Amino acid sequence: MLDGLLLNVSKLQPDTVHADTHGQSEPAFGVAHLLRINLFPRMRNWNDVMFCRPTRHVRYWHIDALFGGVIDWALIEDHHRDMMQAILSIQAGTVLPFMLLRKPGSHNRRNRLSKAFRELGRVVRTLILLRDVSEVEFRQTVRAETTKIESYNAFPDWTGFGGSVIKSGDPVEQNKQIKYMNLVANAIMLHNVADLTDILENLVAEGYPATQLHVACLSPCTREHIRRFGRLILEMEHLPVPLKPRSLQLAT
Q1: In this predicted model, what pLDDT tens digit does every residue of 7-42 receive, in sequence order?
Q2: 133 exposed, middle or buried (CB, 10 Å; 0-12, 13-18, 19+)?
């Protein structure tokens, strides 16, 4: 999730990442916060998330039952310098966020730095959960953005020949298939945008107003007008010579 923003070299430099429910891991919230990246995933399974209290003695009116954990501020303070050094390494391009999040969690569960990122992530995630509960517009925005992401993810699967399943176990072949599918999908999307732009300009020239509300209803991932396997034309005037059936030889 975070690697895409850091590796982005275009003129557009977004600072917000929307992800599905699987993107709301606690260490990822901590790393994204220190990188000044807003991580807004869609929360689907509320029974699996945990709100954290700032201290053990704090109690809340009406929503106290949501809180089950306590933030370890001492752990964050003790490893603040280590976390900042890791973030500076990411900004310098030495490591990528997925490398930082994967290695401590899978190879050494007792890694204090990983626990510090996780503890900081609990703080950030609790704030986002509270915002998700209290702000309707925030929930609607997150849902709308994640719907766009799912629409794009389904688009390369549809355009890719042979299905969306990566059958090869070779990482190089897997990377090639993903890149080729995205390349074809982006080419079709670019063509769709060019066609939609021409249509909008023609409508405006004919006197039909095209507002931002109309444009917001359009999508570059439209595929109803696309023939994936070309167009098959049958020429019935030039029929081939009929074949003579072979004589059947019955065994005696």
Answers
A1: 777 788 888 888 777 667 888 899 889 989 888 888
A2: middle
